[in-house]
Amino acid sequence: MAPAVPLALLAVGLGLGLALPSCDYPTHLWCSSREIAVACQAESHCANLAHPTAAPVQLSLYYESLCPACRGFLVQQLFTTWLLLPVEVLNITLVPYGNAQERNVSGKWQFQCQHGSEECLGNMLQACLMHEAQNFTTYFPVIFCMESGSSATKNLKACLQLYAPQLDAGRITACAQGELGAALMHRNAQLTDALDPPHQYVPWVVINGKHTDELQAQAQSSLLRLVCQLYQGDKPEACEDTESPKPGAVCRR
């Protein structure tokens, strides 16, 4: 949808005592892009073009599927913040692995997870879901549903039916039980092991490529407030009334 045309700009287009710029575009398109606004000498009238689009805040979450602190952060902070903010403000990467350990046995990767084999299954199901769906807006609501339920492994089918009925639960389960799931989990192990500084607990939050104790504490207490502070573009409406910070919990290694 084209941006609304300011009254002053309409006055220009209608020739109400103002100089009409020489351009070949109708007035309702003058604010549709910076190039057209420049050609029509209308930049000062286009509020939507006042500032170049800012880069989104980059957030990577390293977590494990059954850690209570991870589930709380993902459900109460991350998903809520994602829902409230426009897509151009926040870019999220999810890495389910956490405090797990891997070993190569006869050429095959095996994993030991902090909260047992069910957590390994949950991690793999979510990794396979991401691989199958590809699109973040498709798989994140499903992961939210899985993590907010009583079981993060047994509600995949129900969550898919609710949020992504186009995806096949059988394919995702087969992935988690096969070589592809192990390969995806190995990749997440490599990403987690490459963290600098090394992670000491989960959830482990990396923002714009950095992890500090201060950023972690701010993310866990009020992620929306932190993202709003870091975003360099025009602040969206959701940033006008951010909640008071609350302390966060972790699952230590």
From TrEMBL:
Presence of the UniProt keyword Signal in the record: yes
Span of the signal peptide: 1-19
Subcellular locations according to the entry: Secreted; Lysosome
Biological process per Gene Ontology, one example term: immune system process
InterPro entries on file: Interferon-induced_GILT (IPR004911)
Protein keywords: Disulfide bond, Glycoprotein, Immunity, Lysosome, Oxidoreductase, Redox-active center, Secreted, Signal
GO molecular function: oxidoreductase activity, acting on a sulfur group of donors, disulfide as acceptor
One GO term describing the cellular component: extracellular region
Top EC category: oxidoreductase
Protein origin, superkingdom: Eukaryota
Presence of the UniProt keyword Secreted in the record: yes
Enzyme Commission numbers on file: 1.8.-.-
Subunit note: Dimer; disulfide-linked.
Family: Belongs to the GILT family.
PANTHER family xref list: GAMMA-INTERFERON INDUCIBLE LYSOSOMAL THIOL REDUCTASE GILT (PTHR13234), GAMMA-INTERFERON-INDUCIBLE LYSOSOMAL THIOL REDUCTASE (PTHR13234:SF8)
Function (record text): Lysosomal thiol reductase that can reduce protein disulfide bonds. Facilitates the complete unfolding of proteins destined for lysosomal degradation. Plays an important role in antigen processing.
Name of this chain's protein: Gamma-interferon-inducible lysosomal thiol reductase
Species the sequence originates in: Gallus gallus (Chicken)
